[in-house]
Design brief:
The chain is mainly beta. The protein has two helices and 13 strands.
């Protein structure tokens, strides 16, 4: 995937029988997914104009250009949708796109290397940062809060993590 594109959502499945889809938006304001212009698949082979239709359970109802029936909508289930980075708004200094955090080196407050950020998740109760720990088989999930992650330095490619008691 090119670093000049950011994943802003995914197709959760078909909704109805006329080609409408259920979108899962990864945007801070879920309806913004339609405001960024055409969205593309991960490999860039397909592009979709998005028209939001209504709120639905677990997402947003939408029509994607070129998708006209339930079978076509079902075939897109799980498809991640990307937008060119320059179409996204500039963020304040204390906010970050998840994509910008992936690959950052992770250190403790004393400067000891801990590993690398491999993912950021949000399952509804707040952001979790997933870290591949150096020399460990299993990754570590931590809350992505100021208490746990006091410093994010994108320019230096570094994240400082204050591990909770018992994990150090």
């Amino acid at each position: 995937m090119s670093e000049d594109r950011v994943c802003v959502g995914s197709v959760a499945g078909a909704f109805g029988v006329r080609g409408e889809v259920r979108l899962k938006s990864f945007c801070a304001e879920p309806t913004d997914i339609a405001a960024y212009g055409p969205l593309t698949t991960k490999d860039g082979s397909r592009s979709f104009a998005v028209t939001l239709t209504r709120p639905v359970a677990g997402g947003i109802g939408a029509r994607l250009s070129g998708v006209t029936d339930k079978d076509a909508a079902d075939a897109l289930r799980g498809t991640e949708l990307y937008v060119a980075r320059e179409r996204l708004p500039r963020l304040p200094d204390d906010e970050f796109y998840y994509a910008d955090l992936i690959g950052l080196a992770v250190r403790d407050p004393g400067g000891t290397g801990l590993g690398t950020v491999i993912a950021v998740h949000n399952h509804g109760a707040g952001d979790l940062i997933e870290i591949r720990l150096t020399g460990k088989a299993s990754p570590l999930l931590l809350p992505f809060t100021r208490a746990t992650v006091p410093t994010v330095d994108l320019a230096a490619g570094l994240l400082i993590v204050d591990l909770p008691e018992g994990l150090d």
